[in-house]
Design brief:
With about 220 residues, the chain is an alpha+beta fold. The protein has one domain: Glutamine Phosphoribosylpyrophosphate, subunit 1, domain 1 (4-Layer Sandwich). Helix content is about 35%, strand content about 30%. It has five helices and twelve strands. Strands 10-1-2-11-12 form a five-stranded antiparallel sheet, with helices on one face. A hairpin with a 2-residue loop joins strand 3 and strand 4. Helix 4 packs antiparallel against helix 5.
């Protein structure tokens, strides 16, 4: 499985990242979708709302990512109706991890492979970030993560040098932008735009919506 995860990095042309700040979480992604060496879409929204308090950022097969978001949204709503209580961010992340784990262990012609970041805000105003690897393993992130996208090697080095504990949301947004820029400069699977979201006790906000246009 470790070898499969290493190989999957080469097949997931994307950059997603999450940064934990003292007053919330920042999540960012590029917009380019690829099929091998071909750019298929220049405006992919890789960060999606599961509901009004949870965000999902995925790397892998587009269809698998879309299915994960739809199933998570439906299951969390059912859980809320049955328990009459809003599920926590941790419960949402564990649900997605369980779906991925179960899917890749069922006999199928096409293997379900999705790496994801889950971020959200709980009812008490506390924001959390979780990373789920393509095998279904889950980990709460205390600082930063870029999961298994092709841009990960270019992002982690920058984050490791510039991330500071207790950084503000605004500092996190600026660091996220620099990280995405670094990935788009060196990773052939990332580019064409940047989306950045903040998750705080005030809720989820999209703070950057930027297209990267080539100059000829």
């Amino acid at each position: 499985m470790d070898e499969e995860l290493k190989n999957s990095i080469l097949k997931t042309g994307t950059t997603i990242l999450g940064i934990v700040c003292k007053d919330g979480v920042v999540m960012a992604a590029d917009r380019q979708s690829t099929a091998g060496t071909i750019v298929m879409n220049k405006d992919s929204q890789k960060i999606q709302r599961v509901n009004n308090y949870l965000l999902f950022a995925g790397t892998g097969m587009v269809s698998d990512i879309q299915r994960s978001v739809k199933l998570a949204a439906a299951e969390l709503r059912l859980k809320e109706l049955k328990s009459r209580a809003r599920p926590s961010v941790k419960q949402g992340a564990n649900l997605v991890a369980a779906m991925i784990y179960q899917s890749i262990r069922q006999p199928t012609m096409l293997q379900f492979m999705v790496g994801s970041l889950i971020a959200g805000v709980n009812e008490d105003g506390n924001s959390e970030l979780y990373s789920i690897d393509p095998s279904g393993g889950i980990k709460q992130i205390a600082d930063y993560d870029a999961n298994f996208g092709s841009g990960m090697p270019f992002v982690l080095g920058l984050l490791e040098r510039q991330y500071k504990k207790e950084m503000t949301i605004q500092e996190g947004v600026e660091l996220a932008l620099e990280s995405i820029k670094s990935a788009t400069q060196r990773d052939i699977g990332s580019g064409h735009g940047m989306d950045v979201f903040t998750i705080t006790k005030e809720g989820i906000k999209k703070v950057v919506d930027k297209e990267i246009k080539p100059n000829y």
